[in-house]
Amino acid sequence: MEFIKSKENKLYKTIKKLKTRKYREKEKLFIAEGHKFLDFKEIPKAIILRDGDDRYQDKVEEFVCPKYIFSESLFNEISSQENSQGIILIYPMKESSIASIGDNIVILDRIQDPGNLGTIIRVSDAAGYKDIVLLKGSVDVYNEKTVRSSMGSLFNMNFIYMEEDELIKFMAEKNYKSTATALREDAVSYTDIIPGSKNAIIFGNEGQGVSERLIEVSDSKVIIPIYGSAESLNVAVATGIVLYKFRELLV
Fold first, then answer.
1. For residues 125 and 175, is the Cβ–Cβ distance under 8 A?
2. With 80 as the cut, is the pLDDT of residue 251 above it?
């Protein structure tokens, strides 16, 4: 393994740049930190270990890719975790295609929190949904916190980015029944959902919810009743409840 201790090193500079969405999109690469990623079959472009930390040496050797050891000070500068496990992996972004989109899709309207997005990816995967459409204004799927929160589920998903107009046209042309989560008087309880043969299930921004336009064009609106004193539910929790109800009815 090559030992790196200089800030002038090309790989070090690349990793620093990959912390920005613009550069990630340009290079089609993203950062994943933590030993959990060694459990997945995906082959990284590179593995970086912290100097003096040899806990994962045997596991790392199983991967056919370049491997590097960064000095402790250099590693700490590229780590995004307060108590890092001493391993960082660089992955190529997955190629996604609208042509392969399935009959039941998850729509995310301007989700802002990377932790929420990562959890939504994870619960969508767990509930058997493989296609997630993100509207403009949503946090980046490959944000480091999103990657970490997804716990590897992002490797299993098909991510499509769309503008709102494009999504509305797409749902109409492909005959999706659209269901929006909404705090509306005409919304039905999630327990009374009636799925279609093809479904687009829409979840909205943490503060503003689903956009008014998407609500208006949706075929149905659903709400999760709150029986206690909480003002609202976290969007990732709400997503899990609704998606599992859909899954129960689709089986």
1. no
2. no
**Does the predicted model carry a pTM greater than 0.90?**
yes
Q: Find the distance separating the first CA and the last CA of the chain, reported in whole Å.
A: 50
Full DSSP string of the chain: -EEE--TT-HHHHHHHHTTSHHHHHHHTEEEEESGGGGGSSPPPSEEEEETT--TTHHHHTTS-S-EEEE-HHHHHHH---TT--SEEEEEEPPP--GGG--SEEEEEES---HHHHHHHHHHHHHTT--EEEEETTPPPTT-HHHHHHHTTGGGG-EEEEE-HHHHHHHHHHTTPEEEEE---TTPEEGGG----SSEEEEEEBTTTBS-HHHHHH-SEEEE----SS-S---HHHHHHHHHHHHHHHH-
Q: What is the pLDDT of residues 69-101, one digit of tens each?
A: 999 999 999 999 888 999 999 999 988 888 889
Per-residue confidence (pLDDT) for residue 161, from 0 to 100? 94
Q: Which fold has domain 98-250?
A: Alpha/beta knot (3.40.1280)
> What is the token pair recorded at 134?
């993100």
CB atoms within 10 A of CB 220: 18
Q: Where are the domains of the chain?
A: 2-92, 98-250
Residues ≥6 apart with Cβ < 8 Å to 216: none
CATH number for the domain formed by residue range(s) 2-92: 3.30.1330.30
